[in-house]
Write the structure tokens for this entry.
Amino acid sequence: MLAFGAGALLGARHVPSSQRVAERFAAAWQGGDLARMYALTDAAAQKRSLRSFVGDYRKAEATATAAHVQFGRARRTGDSTFEIAATVTTNAFGTVRSVLTVPVGMVDGQPRVTWTPTLAFPGLRAGESLTRRTDLPPRAALLARDRTAMVRGGDGVAGSPIAASIVGDLGTMPADRQDALYAEGVPQDSQVGVSGLERVFDERLRGRPGGVLLAGSRTLASQPPRPARAVRTTISLKVQAAAVNALAGRLGGVVSMRPKTGEILAAAGIPLSGLQPPGSTFKIITATAALETKATTLATGYPVQTAATLEGVTLENANGEYCGGTLVQSFAKSCNSVFAPLGVKVGAERLVATARRFGFDQDPGIPGAATPTLPSADQIGDDLAIGSSAIGQGRVQATALTMTLVGATIALHGERPRPTFAYGQRLGRVRVTTPKVAKEVATMMQAVVAYGTGVSAAIPGTIVAGKTGTAELENTRKPDDSVPAVPLTPEEVLAAQIPDTDAWFVGYAPARRKEPRAVVGVLLVRAGTGGDIAAPVARQVLEAAL
């Protein structure tokens, strides 16, 4: 009798292999393991590829805006059929509670889920397909940091011309965002943010979509759209106005930031997307790498000369000027003849690693912002390429936002803030270099404005630190007077009047405070030299921010 009772108990606990397969299929689905799901079915025997199988589930998931699925235990409803309770959490339709019916058959003597299209989503019946109807609520209002309406909710009208300069535009879904937006429940004919703050805050401004999820003609779930709250940004309309006015319609970008918080006070022109060679503003990074490796000191002396020769090629100072002295003097006067060889001494590996700590080759963390780049250490090239990179030429690319963050890192004693347009958001900082090295670089940046190439950024009564940059887009060597001049066509005369250099400036103030209050980055494309053109722009914006 004891033996009989034990046998009966074991029999009651026995789970048929077909039921185990059904439950494993559901468990793999819940864990997002589509390859495991495929292996548990007879889909391969039906000549259905894994790619096609995965595509069916991804399509259903996107249609339903599914975020999470959870299954219960399998319950036998026939000789080879099981029902499993399913709960699907969606973005646009609320919670879908249904049942997944799983048929199990034998393939080569092993139980396998008999796959049909109804298994792509819980609750589907034979002959039904999963469809939806979705709508968006009225778009939320966009506010400046003082709560002034930059864009009124619903009508999308900018509150002022200054606000319009940063607000951006609405438009049809860009091709590279269509799949993601569809999966969030956004109707395909919707207007979405495509530039400026409309792009940065697109998800928050458009609210939560709603609608009806259908299995054939049956409603599986429904939920009304839910509007979002107004979004308060970090933009100061006063500083934004200064940036717009200083830019004066020229092609370029201007960014102003509170370094302590990473809050962006102004962003005019193409500050997030305009990738250009940063020129000598990159020497902030080269100097940091050189000081970290003790390849130089502030007092190290360098010969006064017009150029440096690397790999047999002459790299001239701006306009072939004589330049040199201590490292501080060489930085203040922006000597290519010093910093190109110094970059070679530092080496490609260290130079690239330092640039990456400053944010190169990293997503800035703001939707729509371009990623600054430079070649990897093993692809940067010979000493000439390393030297060119060390002075912000070659294949180095940055935006005004990139170099603003570089300046902010020095202002914050070696910690890089994470930028934000969301008022009150604090994303923390990343340690880039030591406070000692940052202080030494800050000393050099103060010399730039005190007596170097950046004196046009000086503000009476305030100590400003900065770095100019003049990025060569073509060969800017002066013509050889010994070569007879060739008459120019009218078109060539017009082209010759357009500068072939980008003008850059990065700076912050007050420079000797523990935490400076404002940092600014300026890029003006084909506008001339950084000291003459970009530095005065930076001064105007810094004055407004202070």
Remarks:
- Residues 1-12, 476-485 have pLDDT under 50 and may be disordered.
- Residues 435-451 form the longest helix (17 residues).
- The chain has three domains: 14-128, 135-232, 237-477+484-545.
- Residues 237-477+484-545 form a domain with the Beta-lactamase fold (CATH 3.40.710.10).
